């Protein structure tokens, strides 16, 4: 491998990444060692050769870690001056959101946990392999997620209102300190879940990294600008991934022999505070099929079950009562026909990790919400 640069760590990633790629190539295919030309704006070049001797070059970028926000700039750089080469990112580990952005940019990737995607038009080759879903060395950096009541309240505040709030307004709405809000917004920005306005003059050359021998002009991100866009579908999906339903409440299952409809009719006159979520709430807006399972947020499952005449069971249940870890689930509810339903954003998050057709119902509801934002966003 060419070693004129002081980038031993990147060289190791590239060497190990090419070794991982060789393991996945079909019989008769080969990949060369990596080479770097003087002055190249890529970390390395390699060549894949097909059994019929046709070949294609790979323009390789090596990163110890990568945020989704940086993918577009990397894709542009890899293609700059290398239009005939296939762009590929190699890393120790790439998160699911980074891999998704790389796929959108038509950039191949290889990480050292086994995640791999490579599409060659000529000679024709397609490889897609699933590796680790979590960083095996995550102790190297602070954990970042949307798990916990405070993060959930921030998500709801960002999703439920069309006018993007500022840090202090978010802090007041979510009842958390502004410092926590700033840290979460920086995380959401790095994950491309929100977009923040940057000063028009905030362009500079990228800082020279000890692992790199070149830099390109790019915006300097300070994470301090106001929010101008919230990718609320992606934000809800990320929230559900980090904080699934059973992490946001205690679930208990019950049987109502007479069915769900009679139960819903009794809710308003039986329980002081509740919110129907899940399939029943989604079906009211974007029905897919009749629901056979009702999920309801309640303050006290035992008391609610007693008042509603439900029998607790582990098998054959058609009612799930959930005691929330945070009362935000009861905010921005909607009354329809005397029944109180959770806010659409809450319903989506609850469905995305629900069993059965819950995720499909969530996606159908997201499609409706996208087409009818004025009907549910404040």
Shape: elongated
Summing up helix and strand content along with how strands pair, one would put the structural category as: alpha+beta
Average pLDDT number: 86
Helix content: 25-40%
Strand order of the largest sheet: 1-2-3-4-5-6-7
Largest sheet: 7 strands, mixed
Q: Compute the gyration radius: what is it?
A: 25 Å
Low-confidence stretches: 1-6, 139-143, 201-223
- Percent strand equals 15-25%
Structure description:
By secondary structure, the chain is α+β, with helices and mostly antiparallel strands. It has helices at 8-24, 71-79, 96-104, 149-159, 167-174, 178-190, 232-242, 260-270, 278-285, 301-308, 344-352, 358-371, 373-376, and strands at 30-31, 44-49, 55-63, 86-91, 108-111, 116-121, 124-129, 194-196, 203-205, 217-219, 227-230, 249-255, 274-277, 294-298, 311-312, 319-324, 334-336, 339-341. The strands form 5 sheets. The chain has a 7-stranded mixed β-sheet with strand order 1-2-3-4-5-6-7, with helices on both faces. The chain has a 5-stranded mixed β-sheet with strand order 13-14-16-12-15. Strands 8-11 form a two-stranded antiparallel sheet. Helix 4 crosses helix 5, helix 7 (232-242) crosses helix 11 (344-352) and helix 11 runs antiparallel to helix 12. It starts with 7 loop residues before the first helix and ends with a helix. Mean pLDDT is 86; it is low at 1-6, 139-143 and 201-223.
């Amino acid at each position: 491998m060419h070693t004129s640069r002081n980038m031993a760590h990147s060289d190791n990633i590239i060497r190990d990444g090419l070794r991982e790629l060789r393991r996945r190539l079909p019989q008769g295919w080969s990949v060369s060692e990596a080479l770097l030309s003087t002055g190249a704006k890529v970390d390395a070049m390699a060549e894949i050769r097909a059994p019929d001797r046709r070949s294609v070059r790979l323009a390789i970028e090596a990163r110890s870690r990568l945020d989704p926000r940086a993918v577009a700039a990397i894709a542009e750089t890899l293609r700059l001056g290398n239009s005939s080469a296939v762009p590929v990112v190699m890393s120790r580990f790439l998160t699911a959101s980074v891999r998704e952005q790389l796929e959108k940019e038509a950039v191949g990737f290889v990480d050292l946990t086994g995640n791999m995607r490579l599409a060659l038009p000529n000679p024709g080759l397609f490889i897609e392999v699933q590796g680790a879903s979590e960083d095996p060395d995550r102790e190297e950096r602070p954990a970042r997620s949307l798990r916990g009541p405070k993060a959930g309240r921030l998500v709801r505040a960002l999703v439920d209102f069309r006018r993007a709030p500022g840090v202090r307004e978010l802090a007041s709405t979510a009842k958390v300190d502004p410092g926590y809000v700033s840290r979460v917004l920086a995380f959401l920005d790095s994950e491309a879940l929100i977009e923040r306005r940057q000063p028009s003059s905030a362009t500079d050359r990228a800082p020279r990294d000890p692992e790199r021998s070149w830099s390109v002009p790019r915006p300097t991100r300070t994470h301090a600008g106001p929010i101008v866009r919230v990718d609320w579908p992606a934000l809800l999906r990320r929230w559900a991934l980090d904080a699934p339903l059973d992490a946001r409440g205690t679930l208990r299952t019950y049987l109502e022999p007479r069915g769900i409809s009679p139960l819903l009719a009794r809710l308003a006159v039986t329980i002081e505070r509740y919110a129907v979520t899940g399939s029943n709430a989604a079906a009211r807006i974007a029905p897919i099929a009749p629901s056979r399972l009702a999920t309801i947020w309640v303050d006290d499952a035992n008391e609610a079950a007693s008042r509603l005449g439900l029998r607790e069971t582990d098998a054959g249940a058609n009612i799930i009562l959930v005691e929330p870890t945070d009362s935000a689930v009861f905010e921005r509810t909607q009354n329809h026909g005397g029944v109180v339903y959770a806010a659409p954003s809450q319903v989506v998050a609850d469905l995305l990790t629900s069993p059965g057709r819950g995720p499909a119902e969530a996606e159908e509801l997201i499609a409706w919400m996208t087409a009818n934002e004025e009907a549910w966003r404040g």
